[in-house]
Amino acid sequence: xxxxxxxxxxxxxxxxxxxxxxxxxxxxxxxxxxxxxxxxxxxxxxxxxxxxxxxxxxxxxxxxxxxxxxxxxxxxxxxxxxxxxxxxxxxxxxxxxxxxxxxxxxxxxxxxxxxxxxxxxxxxxxxxxxxxxxxxxxxxxxxxxxxxxxxxxxxxxxxxxxxxxxxxxxxxxxxxxxxxxxxxxxxxxxxxxxxxxxxxxxxxxxxxxxxxxxxxxxxxxxxxxxxxxxxxxxxxxxxxxxxxxxxxxxxxxxxxxxxxxxxxxxxxxxxxxxxxxxxxxxxxxxxxxxxxxxxxxxxxxxxxxxxxxxxxxxxxxxxxxxxxxxxxxxxxxxxxxxxxxxxxxxxxxxxxxxxxxxxxxxxxxxxxxxxxxxxxxxxxxxxxxxxxxxxxxxxxxxxxxx
Length: 402
Prior knowledge:
The structure is a single chain. With 402 residues, the chain is an alpha+beta fold. The chain has 2 domains: 2-182, Beta-Lactamase (2-Layer Sandwich), CATH 3.30.450; 212-396, Nucleotide cyclase, GGDEF domain (Alpha-Beta Plaits, 2-Layer Sandwich). It is 43% helix and 25% strand. The chain has helices at residues 2-12, 18-32, 38-53, 90-99, 118-123, 156-192, 195-204, 229-234, 238-258, 284-308, 343-352, 363-366; strands at residues 57-63, 70-76, 103-105, 127-135, 138-147, 215-226, 262-267, 270-275, 316-331, 336-341, 359-362, 374-381, 390-396. Strands 6, 7, 8, 9, 10, 11, 12 and 13 form an 8-stranded mixed beta sheet that branches. A 5-stranded antiparallel beta sheet has the order 2-1-5-4-3, with helices on both faces. The longest helix is centred in the middle third of the chain and has 37 residues, at 156-192. The protein is elongated. It starts with a helix and ends in a 6-residue tail after the last strand. Residues 1-16 have low confidence and may be disordered.
């Protein structure tokens, strides 16, 4: 890094040949490409520009991608309180951004183009050099450096070299912006489509694959349902109801994700969770049972908070069934949804609605219960698709004070 700074200083002083200058630009490009974090890239650019140009301060001004306004994104040599305030010549920066042409002034106070401007007069600006940041044919901002104390610091050759630096910086800034945008979209997408499906599609999709074809999976389904929710919802206004559900689901979602579950969908106050799709799992039943136990304990903590706040406790029924389902996207090119089709989906939903609310499981799930769980017999129930009542079991959970 120190070597690069020294060589850049030599380049500005015109003490090295064109080949060496190209090598410095290559080194700088490699340095800028080492990060996709926008603030890190901007800081590297600002550091290099100040070192190179021997300026007292500098600014990176970017064009807002939505409304086209200009704002300082990085500065150097300024008071930290004014880090986001542009203290140079606004006339210069606007000219560079609007025209896409660089500007150099050896003494702005005597330059016919700028000497009457208020910012030049008020700040007694002298040496100024500003170049556009251009990528893909669009001006995305500008690099601006000045020295309010000394005139004739910058020359035309300096402007040419700074423009070469700016061209590299523009690519790095654009890449960082695109990455930042893609990460935002990914997070937004994951908030509406569960993360497992997102990752599964992205790792397997090419230019043409947009959806998951149907795949058979052995899974354990976990369905939850708040008992008496219709009555409960009528006692709350709309805002209070949404806040209540968000608080409840935030707790449940955290537990499910911690145990590797995939939240297939929300159905009012209900939540359908699958263990084993889209990513196959050998221990899907054990994970589901551990998740159910942790959910019950979290609901107990939630209830204590509700009671302390003067509200009624809730009861949540959960149903678990293990078996084969078809997992994949259903819909059209305009709207599709990852979904699960199979008897375990229906059975888990049915068991979650048995009242009084408890954690019930099918015989198929019971056969996979590992050590450390207490299971009790429950009365046989007629599950969907079965001719006769099926054996049902209840998961016994000891609540711990914490």
